[in-house]
Amino acid sequence: MTRDEVIAWCLAQPGAVETYPFGEHVLVVKVTGKAFAYIGFEENSIALRCGVNAEEAATVRARHPDAVRPMGYQSRHGWNTITLDSAIPDAELHELLAASYDYARS
């Protein structure tokens, strides 16, 4: 998926809100006041919650070591940064987007 496709998907979700709390270089999409996607314009990346904890998020990194890395201090809470336009199949990225959205809504 391209960055534009990811943004369109995120903003099409019920209750999604577009915010820029860190400046115009990072779009943070929220639902129920909680972030579910950090979209980096400079790095062409997206950070998503990929599990309920660091161990679950590590399984995604193990499947795609060249495209997925821990998201700084947020990684302990299950967040990963994913390089867009990488080798991750669109269907899997869709699943990760949906799961991150669902985590934020719960």
From TrEMBL:
<dbReference type="InterPro" id="IPR038056">
    <property type="entry name" value="YjbR-like_sf"/>
</dbReference>
<dbReference type="Pfam" id="PF04237">
    <property type="entry name" value="YjbR"/>
</dbReference>
<dbReference type="InterPro" id="IPR058532">
    <property type="entry name" value="YjbR/MT2646/Rv2570-like"/>
</dbReference>
<keyword id="KW-0238">DNA-binding</keyword>
<dbReference type="InterPro" id="IPR007351">
    <property type="entry name" value="YjbR"/>
</dbReference>
<protein>
    <submittedName>
        <fullName>Putative DNA-binding protein (MmcQ/YjbR family)</fullName>
    </submittedName>
</protein>
<dbReference type="GO" id="GO:0003677">
    <property type="term" value="F:DNA binding"/>
</dbReference>
